[in-house]
Amino acid sequence: MLRTAILAAAGHPTVERLVTTASVAQNLVARYVAGDQVEDAVRVTRDLIADGLTVTLDRLGEDTTDEAAAAATTAGYTGLLEALAAAGVAPPAEVSVKLSAVGQRLDPKLATENARKICQAAAAIGTTVTLDMEDHTTTDLTLDTLTALRADYPQTGAVLQAYLRRTETDCRDLAVAGSRVRLCKGAYAEPESVGFETALDVDRSYVRCLNVLMAGDGYPMLATHDPRLIAIGEERARWYDRTPDSFEFQMLHGVRPDEQRRLAREGYTVRIYLPFGPDWYPYLMRRLAERPAYVALFARSLVSS
Ligand code: FAD
């Protein structure tokens, strides 16, 4: 409930002004985000790879409302890929793209064409793109774009959200050879008509979806920090004889870093989702919604400032 309230409040301009000017926000942003510039992203990527992890980079920004901004985001991604290749870190680093950042709300065809340019730039340096998943109104459009891109770039990754009732079926459709699927719980506020309401139901759905993906022929990417789900992922890897190059764990930069390194030491592939750029507000609010303890911290700091 608190999570839904935080996500709803996030859209209010007064809340945005309060949060973006609060000094406590800067500390949290520093925890979750690599920095404002491409150079920051490359530096942190290099450090994570030196620690035995791998990386998917998110150039922060979403809900682009004009064509020029969508083109600028696309160019930002192709520039990022060039910088990663020049630094010798991509591959293994790849990028994660929100279709709303490259124009999906303006015109889904435009977003697909912009995403295609990013896939082309990624393929040229031997790496991949994963399409982030946003709220449920975009799921079909995003999966349509995925299908179009995979015709030319079959290694393009999808994201499925266990909190949606439809996701087990989507997992069955995508658990096929060559397909890369990130399974996460889901970070948006969704109505009961499409999403599970309780944390327990979301966790149960996650396990059903994980079973489908791990038993299937694709490359599962298990994105969670939840200790029970990670343990189930490790167990299923043994059941299904999954070698470390046939699936991976994924976690967010700044969340459970010790666990990230433990899994890497155990020999698993662990990919860190690394955001960078100045447009951090919506990303930070989704992280706050997952961690209500930080909201109390925020409230105290706003009252005392
Ligand atoms: P939770 O039950 O939320 O958390 C389990 C434990 O992890 C918590 O008890 C806590 O110890 C720790 N934890 C979790 N979140 C935080 C936090 N913010 N700060 C500090 N500790 C925390 N969602 C989408 O909707 N679309 C996407 O494309 C998407 N991509 C993702 C990519 C990656 C690599 C990851 C890891 C997540 C992504 N998410 C995405 C977010 C995801 O849907 C969840 O909102 C988020 O991962 C929290 O769920 P959880 O599985 O970690 O479980």
UniProtKB/TrEMBL annotation:
This is proline dehydrogenase. Substrate binds at K98, R286, R287. It comes from the Bacteria. Pathway: Amino-acid degradation; L-proline degradation into L-glutamate; L-glutamate from L-proline: step 1/2. It catalyses: L-proline + a quinone = (S)-1-pyrroline-5-carboxylate + a quinol + H(+). FAD binds at M133, Q161, K185, G186, A187, T224, H225. The lineage of its organism: Bacteria, Bacillati, Actinomycetota, Actinomycetes, Cryptosporangiales. InterPro entries: FAD-linked_oxidoreductase-like (IPR029041), PRODH_bac_arc (IPR008219), Proline_DH_dom (IPR002872), Proline_oxidase (IPR015659). One of its GO terms (molecular function) is nucleotide binding. Binds 1 FAD per subunit. Its EC number is 1.5.5.2. Its cofactor is FAD. Pfam families: Pro_dh. Residues 45-290 form the Proline dehydrogenase domain. GO terms for biological process: L-proline catabolic process to L-glutamate. Keywords: FAD, Flavoprotein, Nucleotide-binding, Oxidoreductase, Proline metabolism.
